[in-house]
Amino acid sequence: MKHTEKELQLLKDEINEMWKIVISQLEKSKQSLLNGDIELAREIISREKRVDAFELKIESDCENYIALYSPVAIDLRLVLSLMKISITLERIADFAEGIARHVIDNDCNKIDSQIMEELQIENMFDILLSMISDCFAALEAENTHITGKILTREEKIDTLYRDSLHILTNYMIKNENLGEEDNTSEKTFSILNSPFSTQKVYCGLKLLLIIRKLERIGDHCSNIMEEIVFYVDAKVLKHNKN
Asked: 3-233: which CATH topology?
């Protein structure tokens, strides 16, 4: 194996290690949110530093490779793609950390299970985990045949996100006056004057923020797949999904 090939393999190994951590972070954020597991949420936050360190190292190593070897064609595409993928993975990990911080806040730990099911939050997590795992496999195999499936799953995430706006609107309207006797709500909303500022409205809005994070993760998974297509097939899909 040529020296340059060894360096490229080292770059791939680094991105693979980072990828595995990010998948784990996303899986743990799912479990932490659904189970209200504060200790697991703290673990997610503590591991975020490892993801940040990987992103910085991969970016530096890719820049050094370009400076030392002046790669062209497929090698250059690989290095450029790995740089962008590492940045995207770090952003996905940021969203997982944001979900963990919501759990640690512990101010919405009594959300109705019915609304969680109606919003299909667990399903959204499962779709995202399948997307990021399939992207990982696609890069490993240098095969882009699943690109269409990845983009279709992103559309499903987008649909669930749009549906959540209507679901949460109805949820908050139905429950706008139900939290007025809740001491927690009085403490939380003492700075607000609106009679509709109840605990359930507050928690509904926080749920929307979480779902927005999940929708953004879906976008990032598609961006990763686009980078893999750029590397393997030398095609640019960005801005050309329709």
From this structure: Methane Monooxygenase Hydroxylase; Chain G, domain 1 (1.20.58)
Cα separation, 133 vs 89, whole angstroms? 12
Structural domain boundaries in the chain: 3-233
Whole-angstrom Cα distance, residue 9 to residue 17?
A: 12
Residue 3 CB-density burial (10 A; 0-12 exposed, 13-18 middle, 19+ buried): exposed
Q: Please, what's the largest Cα pairwise distance for the chain?
A: 72
Using CA of residue 59, residue 63, residue 69, residue 74, what is the dihedral sign? positive
CB crowding 188-204: b at 16 or more within 10 Å, else e:
bbeeeeeeebbbbbbbb
Q: With contact defined as beta carbons under 8 Å apart, do 202 and 185 qualify?
A: yes
Q: How far is CA 159 from the centre of its chain?
A: 16
Question: pLDDT tens-digit profile of 155-193?
Answer: 999 999 999 999 998 888 876 544 444 444 444 333 334
Task: Supply the pTM of this predicted model.
Answer: 0.89
